[in-house]
């Protein structure tokens, strides 16, 4: 017969289990606390119970980063140009990407070390499993977020490197940057051969205020900039039978030997024509694949436009007679926005030009910096597939700032179309005078001419006005009101 336990052993048995459970809970809370300390203040767990040298290094890095971010934020508040420069400098973006990756690995190491300092082997099985879960969630969440940020920076850096050149920087001409915007026709193996849309965005170098000058694709009998390649070939102007401005790309590509030193002969020829017609000196060009344009619109979540008439969705000869963009003000997806800008069914070229100007204005006003940041990966992917330009990467920050300044300002538009200009036999002296008046509207007579050019009420092909009286969006002091 087993002897009865003594009173001492009974007391120990009665109180040992509660003490063990309480000690286990204390250890678990301590382990969780070390993990949370690492989340809130990396390195603090090591300073408290671990390698103090490691903890001090981590906290110095943290405070240095916080101080740097605060300093950059303060500088950015008073100097926007610095922020744009930082976001467009590929060398600095490369350093930031590497820094984020190192930070992700270092923080993950601190989490693992904090888990070790929590002495998981001394915990009960359920507590050990809980600690593994907590450590995993915190480690992968923090490190994953930093690695995703590094990915975004990589996308930004690669986008700038792929999209923008390291070409020659040109200064503003008479206080303005003139950028040639081309919308290319993208048939099979033939994108950009026939520009459907030719526009010069003349931007004030100080205020960002923008005037859009539109040239119709069927413009004929015009001169080229003096001393240019095309001027040497056509000293009397582009007067050949049936020669229209949108055929210059094809002509130049067939005579590439004349354009030595130019990466894109077709764009160069078109630029020389635009300079000859407007008198403006073009700084850079941007060429957009109109079919790929729908991907960009989808990437930014659509564009809100006012559709005033049913717009057929289809090209002449391919329209099924059933697909239309219905009238109303609403957000259009990429495909509908493309057809809103391109459709010529039940309309004319000049009505289409007016709608294209409305799309440009909508993109400018609605594409906020926040929207760009949230959708940047999709935007970059769409843009590299649909846009080519000769704007140097070093100038990107300047144009980002000008675009931000332009938002909220009235955009003026002038198009060299009937009834103001005869597209078959344009008065070049008149076009240049109109350009001068548009970029420096300081006289009452100019205001009267603008008022006189306003079209009568009513719509044609989705645009205010008609071919005889003109379209509001082609000649407007405020493009937003004309759309």
Write down the CATH topology of the largest domain. Aminopeptidase
Poorly predicted spans: 1-15, 188-192, 443-451
Strand content range: 5-15%
CATH class wording of the largest domain: Alpha Beta
Describe the structure.
The chain has 483 residues and is α+β, with helices and mostly antiparallel strands. The chain has 2 domains: 149 residues, no CATH class; 307 residues, 3-Layer(aba) Sandwich (Aminopeptidase), CATH 3.40.630.190. Helix content is 54%, strand content 13%. The protein has 18 helices and 16 strands. The strands form 5 sheets. It has a 7-stranded mixed beta sheet. A 3-stranded antiparallel beta sheet has the order 13-14-15, with helices on one face. A hairpin with a 3-residue loop joins β14 and β15. α3 crosses α4 and α8 crosses α9. The radius of gyration is 32 Å and the shape is elongated. The N terminus is likely disordered.
Give keywords.
483 residues; alpha+beta; Aminopeptidase; 2 domains; seven-stranded mixed beta sheet; three-stranded antiparallel beta sheet; 18 helices; 16 strands; 13% strand; elongated; disordered N terminus
Tell me briefly what this model is.
This protein has helices at residues 7-40, 44-49, 52-78, 80-88, 90-117, 125-163, 229-233, 248-254, 265-278, 290-299, 334-342, 349-366, 369-374, 376-386, 396-406, 428-439, 444-452, 479-482, and strands at 176-184, 186-187, 190-191, 197-204, 210-215, 284-289, 303-307, 311-312, 324-325, 328-332, 387-389, 412-415, 459-460, 463-466, 470-471, 475-476. It is of the alpha+beta class.
